[in-house]
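Renewal narrative, Specific Aim 1. Our central claim is that a sequence can be written position by position from structural information alone. The example that follows is taken directly from our test logs and has not been curated for this report. It begins with the structure tokens describing the chain, in the order in which they were read.
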């Protein structure tokens, strides 16, 4: 039994690490494509550019603030995956951009930016599927919807609350992005695609791949 638990923790932990790095690369690709990003990334990109803080540091700070509320209201959502997510997604995106800039690799043409955007959506969905299937904690931002649902005492469903939170993030990202002239780079077609496509795609990858892959290592 003890050996099985070790193998389970290792396999699920590895899935979290791989999934989070894929999500970080996806976030970096969203920023490189400059055609809009998922709501949380859009907000953090706008704020970081407005106040002049590195994206990874700003994202870590925002996640840390949210984590305080998660700790008091939905502590069961906190795990290895939670901490790894809040620390490494932003910095992985920053590192990818730094590498591309160092090697003078740019994607300025419309077709190449569309390819990068498509790659970012695909990586985000595969990474999220792995991360969720591992069941080792929820990201702070994802937890906020459940906290708000509990606070609303059933008057609002999670799906409705998540839409409201995403809209708030988009508005904040757009307004702060306006101050540095990048509002249409962080809120655009990529934001719409994220809102409409990532949920179904993540579910598809979970059902047909990651859930099956990690099923032998799930908690008994």
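The sequence written for that structure reads:
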């Amino acid at each position: 039994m003890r050996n099985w638990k070790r193998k389970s923790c290792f396999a699920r932990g590895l899935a979290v690490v791989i999934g989070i790095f894929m999500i970080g690369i996806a976030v970096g690709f969203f920023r490189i494509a400059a055609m809009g990003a998922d709501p949380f990334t859009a907000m953090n990109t706008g704020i970081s550019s407005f106040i002049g803080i590195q994206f990874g540091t700003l994202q870590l700070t925002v996640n840390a603030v949210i984590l305080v509320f998660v700790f008091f209201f939905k502590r069961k959502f906190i795990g290895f995956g939670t901490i790894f997510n809040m620390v490494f997604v932003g910095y992985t995106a920053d590192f990818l951009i730094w590498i591309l800039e160092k090697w003078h690799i740019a994607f300025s043409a419309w077709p190449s930016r569309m390819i990068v955007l498509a790659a970012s959506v695909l990586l985000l969905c595969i990474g999220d599927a792995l991360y969720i299937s591992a069941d080792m904690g929820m990201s702070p931002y994802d937890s906020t919807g459940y906290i708000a649902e509990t606070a609303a005492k059933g008057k609002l469903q999670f799906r409705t609350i998540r839409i409201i939170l995403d809209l708030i993030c988009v508005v904040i990202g757009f307004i702060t992005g306006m101050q540095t002239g990048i509002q249409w780079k962080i809120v655009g077609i990529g934001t719409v695609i994220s809102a409409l496509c990532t949920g179904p795609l993540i579910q598809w990858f979970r059902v047909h791949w990651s859930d099956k892959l990690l099923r032998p290592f799930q908690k008994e």
